Amino acid sequence: WPDAGGRKVTVTTELKPVSEWEPDAKVEAIVHRRMETVRELDNAPLFVWDGPGVLSSKDNRIQETTLSTKLVSMLRDALGCDCCVLNAGNIRGNRDYEPDHRAFTYNDLKSEIPFDCEMIVVPMPGH
Asked: pLDDT tens digit string along 31-41?
């Protein structure tokens, strides 16, 4: 209150970096325990690469890549449709996976497609 008899309240706020405080060990333990499920999901394999060559999204915007082909094929099959078109700009990892990187995980998917990517199924009669 600016003055004892006033009816208006003055409120001020200040942003402070959390680094100014020491972490609380009990809270860290709770967060670590709760995040275990998230870590398990991040490491869950979505598919095992058994195709020829290296799994790659390198230069995805200018050429077909093994990863983009695998992803759209899986989406097509999962959606039960005849064709899947995915804008190449959504796949942003631009990397070659190591030959021993066989299991493509949810974490890999998040790094390849870091933003929301809306999908629709459109009936196209006449085929």
From this structure: 999 999 999 99
